Protein backbone atom coordinates (compact mmCIF):
# COMPACT_ATOMS: atom_id res chain seq x y z
CA UNK A 1 0.00 0.00 0.00
CA UNK A 2 1.38 3.40 -0.95
CA UNK A 3 1.36 6.11 1.71
CA UNK A 4 0.95 9.73 0.60
CA UNK A 5 3.69 12.21 1.33
CA UNK A 6 3.01 14.31 4.41
CA UNK A 7 3.10 18.07 4.02
CA UNK A 8 3.24 18.53 7.81
CA UNK A 9 5.73 20.86 9.43
CA UNK A 10 8.90 19.14 10.66
CA UNK A 11 11.45 20.02 13.32
CA UNK A 12 15.14 20.08 12.47
CA UNK A 13 18.17 20.40 14.79
CA UNK A 14 21.56 21.31 13.32
CA UNK A 15 24.37 18.81 13.77
CA UNK A 16 26.29 21.33 15.90
CA UNK A 17 23.40 21.34 18.43
CA UNK A 18 22.60 17.63 18.62
CA UNK A 19 24.91 17.00 21.60
CA UNK A 20 23.35 19.83 23.62
CA UNK A 21 20.55 19.20 26.11
CA UNK A 22 17.15 19.54 24.33
CA UNK A 23 16.32 22.81 26.10
CA UNK A 24 19.51 24.40 24.68
CA UNK A 25 19.10 23.20 21.09
CA UNK A 26 17.94 25.54 18.36
CA UNK A 27 15.01 24.01 16.54
CA UNK A 28 14.14 25.03 13.00
CA UNK A 29 10.66 24.37 11.64
CA UNK A 30 10.38 23.48 7.97
CA UNK A 31 7.69 22.38 5.58
CA UNK A 32 8.24 20.25 2.46
CA UNK A 33 8.09 21.85 -0.95
CA UNK A 34 4.79 21.37 -2.72
CA UNK A 35 5.09 19.28 -5.89
CA UNK A 36 4.82 22.21 -8.31
CA UNK A 37 7.34 24.30 -6.34
CA UNK A 38 9.75 21.38 -6.22
CA UNK A 39 9.55 20.94 -9.99
CA UNK A 40 10.05 24.66 -10.65
CA UNK A 41 13.01 24.91 -8.29
CA UNK A 42 14.54 21.66 -9.54
CA UNK A 43 14.50 23.05 -13.08
CA UNK A 44 16.97 25.70 -11.90
CA UNK A 45 19.56 23.08 -11.04
CA UNK A 46 19.29 21.41 -14.44
CA UNK A 47 20.17 24.55 -16.38
CA UNK A 48 23.75 24.52 -17.62
CA UNK A 49 25.66 27.77 -17.79
CA UNK A 50 27.99 27.55 -20.77
CA UNK A 51 30.28 30.15 -19.19
CA UNK A 52 30.88 28.31 -15.88
CA UNK A 53 33.31 25.39 -15.98
CA UNK A 54 35.11 22.93 -13.79
CA UNK A 55 38.60 22.30 -15.12
CA UNK A 56 39.94 18.81 -14.52
CA UNK A 57 42.95 16.80 -15.58
CA UNK A 58 41.93 13.73 -17.62
CA UNK A 59 44.38 11.35 -19.27
CA UNK A 60 47.10 13.99 -19.33
CA UNK A 61 44.97 16.81 -20.73
CA UNK A 62 42.79 19.51 -19.26
CA UNK A 63 39.07 19.04 -19.72
CA UNK A 64 36.55 21.85 -19.18
CA UNK A 65 33.10 20.67 -18.15
CA UNK A 66 30.16 23.08 -17.90
CA UNK A 67 28.34 22.91 -14.56
CA UNK A 68 24.74 23.40 -13.53
CA UNK A 69 24.39 27.08 -12.79
CA UNK A 70 21.30 26.83 -10.58
CA UNK A 71 22.48 24.43 -7.87
CA UNK A 72 23.03 27.04 -5.15
CA UNK A 73 20.04 29.10 -6.19
CA UNK A 74 17.87 25.98 -5.93
CA UNK A 75 19.09 25.34 -2.40
CA UNK A 76 18.64 29.00 -1.43
CA UNK A 77 15.06 29.03 -2.70
CA UNK A 78 14.28 25.75 -0.93
CA UNK A 79 15.45 27.12 2.41
CA UNK A 80 13.76 30.50 1.91
CA UNK A 81 10.45 28.83 0.97
CA UNK A 82 10.45 26.00 3.51
CA UNK A 83 12.01 27.51 6.64
CA UNK A 84 8.93 28.78 8.47
CA UNK A 85 10.04 29.21 12.07
CA UNK A 86 12.44 28.41 14.86
CA UNK A 87 12.84 28.31 18.60
CA UNK A 88 15.85 29.12 20.75
CA UNK A 89 17.61 30.98 17.90
CA UNK A 90 19.39 34.02 19.30
CA UNK A 91 21.18 37.10 18.05
CA UNK A 92 24.68 38.16 19.15
CA UNK A 93 23.26 39.85 22.28
CA UNK A 94 21.50 36.63 23.33
CA UNK A 95 17.99 37.82 22.43
CA UNK A 96 15.56 35.37 20.84
CA UNK A 97 15.11 36.09 17.12
CA UNK A 98 11.47 36.43 16.12
CA UNK A 99 11.33 34.75 12.69
CA UNK A 100 7.82 36.07 12.09
CA UNK A 101 9.29 39.57 11.81
CA UNK A 102 11.93 38.57 9.25
CA UNK A 103 11.54 38.26 5.50
CA UNK A 104 12.56 34.93 3.93
CA UNK A 105 15.73 36.65 2.66
CA UNK A 106 16.58 37.90 6.17
CA UNK A 107 15.98 34.43 7.62
CA UNK A 108 18.28 32.90 5.01
CA UNK A 109 20.96 35.53 5.53
CA UNK A 110 20.96 34.97 9.31
CA UNK A 111 22.21 31.40 8.77
CA UNK A 112 25.83 30.41 8.28
CA UNK A 113 26.45 28.71 4.91
CA UNK A 114 26.99 25.27 6.47
CA UNK A 115 23.65 25.59 8.31
CA UNK A 116 21.91 26.57 5.06
CA UNK A 117 23.34 23.44 3.45
CA UNK A 118 22.18 21.21 6.32
CA UNK A 119 18.70 22.67 6.12
CA UNK A 120 18.60 22.30 2.33
CA UNK A 121 19.63 18.64 2.58
CA UNK A 122 16.94 17.98 5.19
CA UNK A 123 14.28 19.74 3.09
CA UNK A 124 15.34 17.79 0.02
CA UNK A 125 15.10 14.53 1.98
CA UNK A 126 11.41 15.25 2.59
CA UNK A 127 10.80 14.55 -1.12
CA UNK A 128 11.66 10.89 -0.67
CA UNK A 129 9.65 8.22 1.10
CA UNK A 130 10.82 7.08 4.50
CA UNK A 131 11.72 3.44 5.01
CA UNK A 132 8.47 2.99 6.97
CA UNK A 133 6.41 4.41 4.08
CA UNK A 134 8.12 2.12 1.58
CA UNK A 135 7.44 -0.95 3.74
CA UNK A 136 3.69 -0.22 3.83
Q: How many beta-strand elements?
A: 5
**What is the N-to-C succession of helices and strands?**
EEHEEHEHHH
Strand order of the largest sheet: 1-2-5
Contiguous uncertain segments of 5+ residues: none
What share of the residues lie within helices? 25-40%
Largest beta-sheet details: 3 strands, antiparallel
Mean pLDDT: 84
Tell me the distance between the termini.
Answer: 5 Å
Estimated share of beta-strand residues: 15-25%
CA gyration radius, whole angstroms: 18 Å
Number of helical stretches of at least 4 residues: 5
Which descriptor suits the 3D outline? globular
Structural class: alpha+beta
Describe this structure in words.
The protein has helices at 35-46, 71-82, 104-109, 113-125, 131-135, and strands at 10-13, 27-30, 48-58, 61-68, 83-87. With 136 residues, it is an alpha+beta fold. It is globular. It starts with 9 loop residues before the first strand and ends with a helix.
